[in-house]
């Protein structure tokens, strides 16, 4: 198990700003925020699962009134920006809780000559990025995002949805194997790095229940430096691979020692949605008036199943569909499994898959995982498959997503991931095509040993 | 919550609407002393709703100007309290204003920021410390005052104006944004006829956070 205290604790609380309101402690699922009410809080890096919900809820900002003059306030602001590694010309208010920023590091690396710069984007980004430019909730901008990333200097713009499809394929297969051949059940999803870290810290004896599949980001990362390198005829060492993610824990995930194949990191650096917005603004790109551009093929193609990964129950829904078709060789009669969707809490369902009554559960918000895991530990949990997402409504409410100012807007933030149309739901065919494509070209490392 | 609702209609002018038919005389937002946790969610909500006309959206990323709210959370020892305008019936700020930029309409004391000359007379007159004079921003940029320059570097100085709680008169009907945003339900909209015992007089100076 890796702890984050030896390097970068990722989540920080500025003691000069924190008023000790402890709202961050109220949303922390693992009690990692420590301190007395009214006093500056600290983050216990050994307990923190880096979900970033404390950053999202923090409303204590650096006020100009706190300084003796506007000039003093401006100087203090620049000091804070430097401490946080934020772009110098950033205009937004600075809050007490913040996470480590990688933008300056990535922008510097992009200038390095002789490398192929490749980026992948998570499904939750295209739903939220426009909010950073004043557009209404749920404005979908995948085309503008691809165009912006090309203008930022990336040579290939790929889609993490491709990796989500691979994850579904592998995870669905693993589930069926565990159910039919006998394996640790229930099987837990392993896409959410905060959840994986939570399991490592709180329930290390249950780690063999986690799926062995890498997350979609790491899947695409592994593909980029193998299959992607072959496509572009470049050495993996000359590929600079960046991921745009809604999550504050994804950088931690990509830094994990096991996320390396043949001496190369699967993903080199991760930027959050907010960091991508900073970057676009810093470069003076008129985001709202960009023409729509396509993702690059083939690692930018995906099915409808990949699209719904960003929402609670999305992984479960996609995996059930795949598992059903693998087991029965028939299509699931009703493709949209709304019963596993929903927000915070635990939702359960039963699906008849051939002769098997598959019992599944979806957990949104890590604080709800304790009771379920206690039952698994006690051998009282008869579910086959459990999806766990660390954030309240899945990746869409991740710690790296746009931070909202009004409480009522936070509760209004509903999932706007478009329902894929029926013809794009043929994810299994797509997945099988990908499997053929990939297995014919090179050996991939999609699994991680814990 | 007391159950008192802000029944002010959306105003049609800077100074408030003349056709408010159901306004409650001397409504104001008051905080339950000792319950505030100092999270400043009220300040942020206040800034968010008043900045919508200047292009400030739902996300923090759309903010390009300093946060200038109309409610101020102050601290005294271990106690936090949000301070804002009490919309005094005999408003001393309006009496002090030399340019009649402050007027009372249907019990709501409003400041016309366009007319205000930033003289701070109202700040001195306010018994609650509810008014601040701050730079004026429009469309994400500070407005400068022609003829005024910084003594050292000769750059133009910003135009300043007084600002204070207007009971969210320029926003949609309903509770003031600060009342809605307060996670501890510390803030409530009270009417002029007191429905709670008067707060004890505070003898301490409240430093701003």
Automatic annotation (TrEMBL), chain B:
A Pfam family it matches: Fer4_11
Keyword set includes Transcription regulation: no
InterPro entries xrefs: 4Fe4S_Fe-S-bd (IPR017896), 4Fe4S_Fe_S_CS (IPR017900), RnfB_subfamily (IPR050294)
PROSITE patterns per the UniProt record, alphabetical: 4FE4S_FER_1, 4FE4S_FER_2
Keywords of the record: 4Fe-4S, Iron, Iron-sulfur, Metal-binding, Repeat
GO molecular function, one term: 4 iron, 4 sulfur cluster binding
Classification via Gene3D superfamilies: 3.30.70.20
PANTHER family: ELECTRON TRANSPORT PROTEIN HYDN-RELATED, OXIDOREDUCTASE
UniProt-recorded name of the protein: Iron-sulfur protein
Taxonomy of the source species: Bacteria, Bacillati, Bacillota, Bacilli, Bacillales
The encoding gene: hydN_1
């Amino acid at each position: 198990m890796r702890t984050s205290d030896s390097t970068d604790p990722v989540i920080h609380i500025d003691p000069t700003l924190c008023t000790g309101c402890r709202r961050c402690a109220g949303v922390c699922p693992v009690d990692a925020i420590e301190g007395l009410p009214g006093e500056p809080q600290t983050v216990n890096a050994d307990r923190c699962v880096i979900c970033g919900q404390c950053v999202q809820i923090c409303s204590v900002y650096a006020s100009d009134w706190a300084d003796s003059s506007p000039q003093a306030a401006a100087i203090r602001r620049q000091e804070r920006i430097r401490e946080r590694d934020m772009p110098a010309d950033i205009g937004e208010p600075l809050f007490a809780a913040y996470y480590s920023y990688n933008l300056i590091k990535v922008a510097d690396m992009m200038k390095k000559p002789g490398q192929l710069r490749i980026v992948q984007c998570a499904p939750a980004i295209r739903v939220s990025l426009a909010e950073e430019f004043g557009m209404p909730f749920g404005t979908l901008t995948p085309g503008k995002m691809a165009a912006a990333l090309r203008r930022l200097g990336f040579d290939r713009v790929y889609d993490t949805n491709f990796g989500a499809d691979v994850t579904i394929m592998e995870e669905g297969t693993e589930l069926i194997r565990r159910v039919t051949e006998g394996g640790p059940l229930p099987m837990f999803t392993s896409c959410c790095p905060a959840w994986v870290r939570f399991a490592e810290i709180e329930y290390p004896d249950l780690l063999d229940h986690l799926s062995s599949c890498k997350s979609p980001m790491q899947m695409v990362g592994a593909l980029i430096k193998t299959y992607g390198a072959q496509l572009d005829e470049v050495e993996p060492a000359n590929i600079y691979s960046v991921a745009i993610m809604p999550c504050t824990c994804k950088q931690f995930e990509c830094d994990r020692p096991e996320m390396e194949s043949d001496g190369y990191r699967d993903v080199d650096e991760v930027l959050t949605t907010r960091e991508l917005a900073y970057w676009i603004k810093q470069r003076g790109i008129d985001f709202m008036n960009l023409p729509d551009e396509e993702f690059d093929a083939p690692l930018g193609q995906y099915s409808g199943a990949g699209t719904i990964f960003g929402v609670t129950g999305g992984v479960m829904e996609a995996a059930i569909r795949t598992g059903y078709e693998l087991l029965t060789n028939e299509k699931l009669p009703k493709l949209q499994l709304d019963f596993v969707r929903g927000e915070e809490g635990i939702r359960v369902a039963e699906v008849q898959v051939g002769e098997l009554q598959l019992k599944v559960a979806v957990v949104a918000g890590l604080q709800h995982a304790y009771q379920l895991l206690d039952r698994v530990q006690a051998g009282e949990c008869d579910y086959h498959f459990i999806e766990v997402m660390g954030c309240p409504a899945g990746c869409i409410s991740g710690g790296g997503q746009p931070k909202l100012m009004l409480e009522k807007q936070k509760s209004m933030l509903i999932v706007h991931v478009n329902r894929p149309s029926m013809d794009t739901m043929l994810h299994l065919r797509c997945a099988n095509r990908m499997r053929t494509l990939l297995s014919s070209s090179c050996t991939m490392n999609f699994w991680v040993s814990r | 919550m007391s159950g008192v609702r802000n029944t002010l209609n959306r105003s049609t002018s800077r100074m408030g609407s003349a056709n408010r038919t159901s306004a409650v005389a001397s409504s104001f937002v008051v905080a339950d002393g000792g319950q505030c946790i100092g999270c400043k969610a009220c300040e942020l909500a206040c800034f968010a709703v008043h900045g919508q006309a200047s292009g400030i959206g739902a996300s923090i990323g759309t903010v390009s100007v300093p946060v200038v709210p109309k409610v101020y959370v102050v601290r005294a020892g271990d106690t936090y309290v949000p301070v804002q305008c009490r919309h005094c019936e005999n408003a001393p700020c309006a009496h002090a204003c030399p340019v009649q930029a402050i007027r009372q309409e249907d019990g709501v004391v409003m400041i016309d920021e366009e007319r205000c000359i930033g003289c701070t007379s109202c700040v001195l007159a306010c018994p609650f410390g509810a008014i601040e004079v701050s730079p004026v921003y429009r469309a994400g940029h500070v407005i400068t005052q022609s003829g005024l320059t910084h003594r050292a570097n000769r750059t133009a100085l910003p135009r300043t104006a007084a600002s204070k709680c207007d009971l969210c008169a320029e926003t949609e009907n309903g509770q003031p944004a600060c009342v809605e945003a307060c996670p501890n339900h510390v803030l409530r909209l009270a009417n002029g006829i007191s429905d709670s015992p008067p707060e004890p007089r505070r003898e301490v100076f409240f430093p701003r956070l």
